[in-house]
Amino acid sequence: MTVKGIVVGYLKENGFDGLCGDECGCGIDDLAPCECDAIMECKPAYKTPCKGAACDHPCDGYDEENIGDCYSTRKPDGR
Questions:
Q1: Can you tell me the distance from the alpha carbon of 28 to that of 62, in angstroms, rounded to the nearest whole number?
Q2: Which of 53, 65, 70, 71 could form a disulfide with 20 if both were Cys (CB 3.0 to 4.6 A apart)?
């Protein structure tokens, strides 16, 4: 069991899609893409597809590789 495994397990068991923090976000399949310690400050998040930076849902961070993916600690409507 690794810390990453524990985090992934928790996120999946509780219906989260990834993490967000410091204006960036990442999905479960690509946690901590920058390989930095900033992940230690991230919070569980939900993914909401957006078109560019224009979202109907408030975003806490964006996935820099998939700019259309918004991550927020607030659960999107209908989930």
A1: 14
A2: 71
